[in-house]
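Reopening this ticket.

The earlier resolution said the output was attached, but the attachment link was broken on my side. Pasting everything inline this time so it's all in one place.
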Amino acid sequence: MEKRPGSFYVLASFFGLFMLFLYGPTLTIGLLSFQGPHGGLTFPMQGMSFNWFRELFEQQAVGDIWGAFRRSLLLGFMVMIATVVVSVSAGLAFRKRFKGSGILFYVTITSLVIPSILVSLGVGLIFNQIGFKVHWATSGFGSQLTWTLPFGLLIMFAVFNRFDKSFEEAARDQGASPRQVIQHVVVPIIAPSLIGVALFGFTLSYDEFARSLLTSGSYNTLPLEIFGMTTNVTTPVIYALGTFTTLFSLIIIGVFLMTVWIMGKRRQRAGSDAGKAT
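Inline output:
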C-alpha cells in the first residue's frame, strides 16, 4: 500500500477544520433546539426533548412565524419563476450579438457587487417616490430579482455558449416552427440547467435578508422575522425554528436534485430505446 505524504494529512486536517467552521454553527443550533423544557440558549444542555418544536407549532406570544414563512415561500416561488423565464429569454437573445449587448451584460452583473443594503434602500426610495406602496410582493420582489437574475443569466449564458445548434437546424430541416424548436428541442436539452436556475432563484430569495430589509413594508419575510425574534425571544424555540427552516431548505434542494436525477434516467432510457429501434 502506497504511503501517503505528510502534506496529505495537513490538507485533510485543514479541510476538516474548514468543514467544522462551515457547518459547526448550524449543528450547534440544531443540537440546542433539542434542549429540555427548562433549557436555555447556551450549553450545558438541560435534558433532551422535542418541547421547543412543539411550542414552535403553537400560538406564539410574539411575532408571526408562520405568516412570515408563507410569505417567504410564496415570494421564493415568484422569484424562481421570474428568474427562470427572464434568464432563458436573455440567454436566447444573447446568442446573437446586438448593439449594446456588452454594456447590458455588465450592467446586469454589476448588481452582484453593489452592497445589498444599498439596493434595498434604493428600491424602497423609488417605490416611495413614484407613489407605490412598499410591500414584500412588489418592492421586495423587485429587490430580490436584482440578486437572483445575475446568477440565472450567468448559468444560461454558459449553457448556450456550448449549446450545439445542429439540433435546432435538424429540427428546422424537418419543418419545425421556431416555437416548436424551442419547445421540443431547446427546452428538453437545457432542462437540467433550468432546474439549477430555479433552485438558485428559490433558495437565494427564501433566505435573503439585506435586500428585503427596507422593501418588505409592514409584513416581514421569514429572515426578517427570525432577526426580530433575536431581540425578544429568550428560549430555544428560535433554535427550533432555525432547525426547521434548515431542514426545509435541504428538502427543497433534495427535491430539485431528485428531479434532475429522474430526468437523466428518462433521457438515458429514451436514448437506449431509440438505439434499439435503429
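Reporter confirms the inline version is readable. The two ends are 48 Å apart (CA to CA). The first helix runs from residue 6 to 32.
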